Amino acid sequence: MTAASELGAWGVLIAVIGGALRVSTPYLFVSLGETLTEKSGRVNLGLEGTLMMGAMSGYGVSLASGSAWFGVFVAGLVGAAFGLLHAALCSLPRVNDIAVGIALFIFGTGLAIYLGKPLIEPVAPSLPAIPLGFWSDVPALRSALEINALLILGIALAPLLHWGLANTRWGLILRTVGDSADAARALGFSVNGVRTAATGLGGFLAGIGGAFLSLFYPGTWNEGLSSGQGLMAVTLVIFARWEPINCIYAALLFGGASALGPALQAAGVTGNYYLYGAAPYILTLLLLIRSSSTRHRLRGAPSELTISK
Predict the structure, then answer these.
(1) Phi, psi of 177, rounded to the nearest 5 degrees
(2) DSSP class of 296
């Protein structure tokens, strides 16, 4: 008997909430990283490749070292390396950051699939779970409410980034570079240096998001692990209006949409399964349509973004 059917009518709701808490974690880390990158005036569409490389490298290092947390750290470093590569290419004359992002998306995904072939069957150590349902005697409920420390870390990181962007010198410099490169240069700031640092840090967070996929949920390495989460995170940032705290709500929304299909299937609703499984992609399309309206179009976007010009 499945978790959802054990809990009756409440099963689907609990399964969606539990799924949202788990599935939202990579969305949250990738969107926070992309928020930092875009605040500097640069778009990184290569995050899908970064996410896949983070998942593959984190799983491989966890398998080799026996430490899942060390795998998370290395995944972040690999993500930062991809971010710095993106920044280095974008610093060249007459190079478009959108085109570079698409190229690194393809390159990172292909490289992860190629290097990760030996990792498909071996089982690596996983990240530990935090049992939020410890108070319940129902095994299905306890299972549905298991989360990971990375979710708590991401939720704590969002207000910290919000405060830093609004109240610190580096936050002011980052926002100045993103809103007016000419003004930043006049003040003596290195536009390319700031954007390089922001893109590298954004890649680091995206790599951690990838490690969550392979080391906790679903907790294995395979070639279709990401399912477009890196690309959807760019839409998520637009929906969050480039505010780190809003990324929490947006990530939970996308996580719930992603968990809807499996929750309904667990409850015995098998009809239109593929339609329910497409919920996050439909949500992405609807949010893009809403963001392109004259009322909501790119409100709050840094002026130097390619998509703002």
Answers:
(1) -60, -40
(2) T
Please check whether residue 30 is in contact with residue 211, taking contact to mean a CB–CB distance below 8 angstroms.
no
Q: What whole-number distance in Å separates Cα of residue 166 and Cα of residue 244?
A: 11
Here the contacts of 92-98 (C-beta below 8 Å, separation 24 or greater) are: 96/306, 97/42, 97/43, 97/44, 97/306, 98/43, 98/45, 98/306
- DSSP state at residue 121: S
Interatomic CA distance for residues 178 and 186, integer angstroms:
14
Residue for token digits 């939020």?
132
Kindly write down the DSSP assignment for every residue of 207-256, as one continuous string: HHHHHHHHHTSS-S--TTSSTTHHHHHHHHHHHTTT-HHHHHHHHHHHHH
The secondary structure of residue 305, as a DSSP letter, is: S
Q: What is the pLDDT along the chain (309 residues), one digit of tens a residue?
A: 444 455 455 667 777 888 788 889 999 999 999 999 999 999 999 999 999 999 999 999 999 999 999 999 999 999 999 999 999 999 999 899 999 999 999 999 999 999 999 999 999 999 999 988 777 776 766 777 788 999 999 999 999 999 999 999 999 999 999 999 999 999 999 999 999 999 999 999 999 999 999 999 889 999 888 878 888 888 889 888 899 999 999 999 888 888 777 766 666 666 666 677 777 778 878 877 776 665 655 667 888 886 655
For domain 3-308, the question of CATH label 3.40.50 is answered with no
Cα 65 to Cα 61, 69, 70, 71, 96, distances in angstroms = 6, 10, 8, 8, 39
pTM over cut 0.85: yes
One-letter amino acid for residue 262 of the chain: P
